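pasting for ref
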Amino acid sequence: MFPLLDKHLAALFNGEVDDGNSDSMLDAIIFGAAREAVPDLAIRRCDHIDTLRRLIIRRISDRDDIRLICERRLAERDAKQDDFDKICLKLTKYEEV
Protein backbone atom coordinates (compact mmCIF):
# COMPACT_ATOMS: atom_id res chain seq x y z
CA MET A 1 0.00 0.00 0.00
CA PHE A 2 2.72 2.51 0.91
CA PRO A 3 4.83 1.91 -2.23
CA LEU A 4 1.75 2.55 -4.39
CA LEU A 5 0.94 5.66 -2.39
CA ASP A 6 4.52 6.92 -2.71
CA LYS A 7 4.38 6.32 -6.47
CA HIS A 8 1.11 8.24 -6.83
CA LEU A 9 2.33 11.15 -4.70
CA ALA A 10 5.65 11.36 -6.53
CA ALA A 11 3.87 11.45 -9.90
CA LEU A 12 1.39 14.04 -8.63
CA PHE A 13 4.05 16.36 -7.21
CA ASN A 14 6.33 16.01 -10.24
CA GLY A 15 3.52 17.15 -12.53
CA GLU A 16 3.41 13.88 -14.45
CA VAL A 17 -0.36 13.65 -14.06
CA ASP A 18 -2.65 15.39 -16.52
CA ASP A 19 -5.98 16.88 -15.51
CA GLY A 20 -7.97 13.89 -16.71
CA ASN A 21 -6.13 11.44 -14.49
CA SER A 22 -5.68 13.64 -11.44
CA ASP A 23 -9.17 12.90 -10.08
CA SER A 24 -8.71 9.16 -10.35
CA MET A 25 -5.25 9.40 -8.80
CA LEU A 26 -6.53 11.50 -5.91
CA ASP A 27 -9.36 9.01 -5.49
CA ALA A 28 -6.80 6.20 -5.37
CA ILE A 29 -4.71 8.08 -2.81
CA ILE A 30 -7.61 9.03 -0.55
CA PHE A 31 -9.81 5.96 -0.78
CA GLY A 32 -7.20 3.33 -1.63
CA ALA A 33 -6.24 2.78 1.97
CA ALA A 34 -9.88 2.45 2.98
CA ARG A 35 -10.59 -0.05 0.21
CA GLU A 36 -7.60 -2.13 1.23
CA ALA A 37 -8.48 -1.92 4.92
CA VAL A 38 -12.08 -3.14 4.62
CA PRO A 39 -11.21 -6.85 4.21
CA ASP A 40 -8.64 -6.51 6.97
CA LEU A 41 -11.27 -4.99 9.26
CA ALA A 42 -13.60 -7.92 8.58
CA ILE A 43 -10.81 -10.33 9.54
CA ARG A 44 -10.03 -8.31 12.66
CA ARG A 45 -13.71 -8.30 13.61
CA CYS A 46 -13.77 -12.09 13.44
CA ASP A 47 -10.56 -12.23 15.46
CA HIS A 48 -12.03 -9.93 18.10
CA ILE A 49 -15.20 -12.00 18.36
CA ASP A 50 -13.11 -15.15 18.73
CA THR A 51 -10.93 -13.46 21.36
CA LEU A 52 -13.99 -12.33 23.31
CA ARG A 53 -15.42 -15.87 23.26
CA ARG A 54 -12.13 -17.24 24.51
CA LEU A 55 -11.95 -14.63 27.28
CA ILE A 56 -15.49 -15.45 28.41
CA ILE A 57 -14.67 -19.15 28.55
CA ARG A 58 -11.45 -18.41 30.39
CA ARG A 59 -13.21 -16.16 32.90
CA ILE A 60 -15.73 -18.89 33.69
CA SER A 61 -13.06 -21.56 34.03
CA ASP A 62 -10.85 -19.28 36.12
CA ARG A 63 -13.75 -18.59 38.45
CA ASP A 64 -14.35 -22.33 38.84
CA ASP A 65 -10.64 -22.95 39.42
CA ILE A 66 -10.47 -20.24 42.09
CA ARG A 67 -13.56 -21.64 43.80
CA LEU A 68 -12.04 -25.14 43.80
CA ILE A 69 -8.70 -23.86 45.17
CA CYS A 70 -10.54 -21.90 47.87
CA GLU A 71 -12.55 -24.96 48.92
CA ARG A 72 -9.40 -27.08 49.10
CA ARG A 73 -7.56 -24.48 51.15
CA LEU A 74 -10.49 -24.15 53.55
CA ALA A 75 -10.60 -27.93 53.99
CA GLU A 76 -6.84 -27.95 54.59
CA ARG A 77 -7.15 -25.12 57.11
CA ASP A 78 -9.95 -26.93 58.95
CA ALA A 79 -7.89 -30.12 59.09
CA LYS A 80 -4.89 -28.22 60.47
CA GLN A 81 -7.14 -26.47 62.99
CA ASP A 82 -8.48 -29.84 64.15
CA ASP A 83 -4.92 -31.17 64.49
CA PHE A 84 -3.92 -28.06 66.43
CA ASP A 85 -6.90 -28.41 68.77
CA LYS A 86 -6.09 -32.10 69.39
CA ILE A 87 -2.44 -31.28 70.16
CA CYS A 88 -3.43 -28.45 72.50
CA LEU A 89 -5.89 -30.74 74.26
CA LYS A 90 -3.21 -33.41 74.71
CA LEU A 91 -0.75 -30.82 76.00
CA THR A 92 -3.20 -29.55 78.59
CA LYS A 93 -3.90 -33.13 79.73
CA TYR A 94 -0.15 -33.81 79.92
CA GLU A 95 0.48 -30.67 81.96
CA GLU A 96 -2.24 -31.64 84.42
CA VAL A 97 -0.54 -34.93 85.19
